[in-house]
Design goal:
- Chain A: InterPro entries: AAA+_ATPase, ABC_transporter-like_ATP-bd, ABC_transporter-like_CS, ABC_transporter_ATP-binding, P-loop_NTPase.
- Chain A: Keywords: ATP-binding, Nucleotide-binding, Transport.
- Chain A: GO terms for molecular function: ATP binding; ATP hydrolysis activity.
- Chain A: Residues 5-232 form the ABC transporter domain.
- Chain A: This is ABC transporter ATP-binding protein.
- The complex is a heterodimer of chains A (282) and B (237).
- The two termini of chain A are 34 Å apart.
- The longest helix of chain A is centred in the middle third of the chain and has 16 residues, at 165-180.
- Chain A folds into 2 domains: 3-215, Rossmann fold, CATH 3.40.50; 225-265, no CATH class.
- In chain A, strands 6-7-8-3-9-10 form a 6-stranded mixed β-sheet, sandwiched between helices.
- In chain A, helix 4 (112-119) packs across helix 5 (135-146).
- Chain A is an alpha/beta fold and 282 residues long.
- Chain A has helices at 43-50, 74-77, 95-106, 112-119, 135-146, 165-180, 192-198, 216-222, 244-255, 269-277, and strands spanning 3-14, 17-28, 32-36, 58-63, 66-67, 80-83, 153-157, 184-189, 201-206, 209-214, 228-232, 237-240, 259-264.
- Chain B is 78% helix and 0% strand.
- Chain B has one domain (5-234).
- The longest helix of chain B has 30 residues, at 205-234.
- Chain B has helices at 5-19, 23-42, 48-76, 80-84, 90-116, 123-147, 151-157, 159-166, 169-174, 188-200, 205-234.
- In chain B, helix 2 packs antiparallel against helix 3 (48-76), helix 3 packs antiparallel against helix 10 and helix 5 (90-116) packs across helix 6.
- By secondary structure, chain B is an all-alpha fold.
- The chains are: A alpha/beta (282), B mainly alpha (237).
- The A-B interface holds A 48, 51-55, 69, 72, 74-75, 77-78, 82, 86-93, 97, 100-102, 104-107, 145 and B 2, 6-7, 9-11, 13-14, 17-18, 21-22, 77-79, 81-83, 85-89, 234-237.
Chain lengths: 282, 237
Amino acid sequence: MEQIIKVKSLAKFFGNYPALEDVHFEVNKGETFGFLGPSGSGKTTTIKILTGQLLATSGDAFVFNQPTASLNKAKYRRKFGVLTDNSGLYDRLTIYDNLKLFCDLYDVPAKRINNVLEMVNLENEQKKMVSKLSKGMKQRAQLARAFLHEPELLFLDEPTSALDPANSKHIYDGLRELTKGGTTIFLTTHDMHEAETLCDRVAFLHKGKIQLLDEPKKLRRQFSDSSLQVLLKDGRELLLPGGPNGAKALYEHMQADKVVSIHSNEPTLGDIFVGITGRELV
Amino acid sequence: MTFSMKRVLAIFNKDLKDLSKNMFVSTSILMPLVLAAIYGRMAEDLSIESYYLVINLAFTMTATFIQCAIIAEEKEKNTLRGLMLSPATIPEIFSGKSLVAFLLSIVTIVVSSIFMEYYPENVALVAVAIVVSTLFYIALGTLLGLLARSVVEASVIIMPVVFLLGFGSFIETLMDKYPILHFAEYLPNLQLIEFATKVQAGSGLTDVWSHLSVITAWFLIVSFLTIVIFKKKEIDA
């Protein structure tokens, strides 16, 4: 499988502070790769290094098989889009005028503006001045700008942090459409629901180091204790252990027709993160 | 490296729309125009120094200050990063970002000259010097804008430039008393005054090329520094 991003032994120090240490991972073409971690764990630093905005202290980072330091060439810049907290918009211009500028810079026809605004649910707001937009609307406009030129690779740094659930869902649908079309997404988030909804694989970043990396499904299975949550008709909730003892207890409750529902007791990604790092994802 | 006029004009059009809604632009242009209107009514025949006091002020206020504020605002609002990450090349970004300040400066200088009734003996020669000077002042504005962290900071760091290059002709009067100030003779504003004085006295290109060369050298040095700083800002260490 073609690898769009390859990172080997990457480290970044700000003074003596290690923002990233010995980070290794690859991102395959067409997948949505989630980089999960709390604020200050090194997620934005990684995006900045991968987009050629920041130099690593040591290690190698390749995007499109190119060292990230050489990504300043126009032919590579056309191939990726970035949304970070510093993706500013021009306040005194409308959403349309902001996007029109980037259409011209990327040689994209202006009719594409309507498509991307539809994807972020802003098609009726395009004549609005950016200074008059709410934080969530600005974030959606920035997102529209990031994939305006239909990039092969999208870097999204907490893309829905300012959005309400309805708009987040709209964005998730749009991002899924993009991946169906072959776009690779590198997503950072501390929203576990977002990670579970969108990501094919996730990496847990804590204190600049990757603690775990796998598919969400496999991670949940790996950390599952095979116990079952059983809700009984009398309102009691039981946690039955796996194995013969749990099976026997469950059988007895079912025989007595007491069971309302049975759920496997798989941990969420958030539970796993807390379990391995001892801290919450905020 | 490619050079796309489409990208240059896109940045120019954006700046034109953006700056038409920006108060600091109109107020910066007004100062030299008001001064020119007052000077024009003060005396029948003004000296070259008087004309160029207004013209040099127009350079610092219109070319340098506006350009400096434009770049500083792009940095402050994180929009410069968007341009840096786009396929636009450094010459395209600089050209696009300089066009508004260039046109405003030329218009301000022409209108100020009309207000003061300054009609050079050799318009073509003076026009060349004005254009080269404008390019220098814009490059200086870009450099200062890249160094400033905000528009407020830009309006502070521009002050020594306004004093030294805008009102620099006052330094000439102090040179005899303080010989150390003779370095100022090589400043682009005083070179422009020398240039214009000689042209007004009937000199041709062969007599004034040295002054034009000094102004051009200033432009090249400042442009080089600007590109070095821009490239440093492109990638953080």
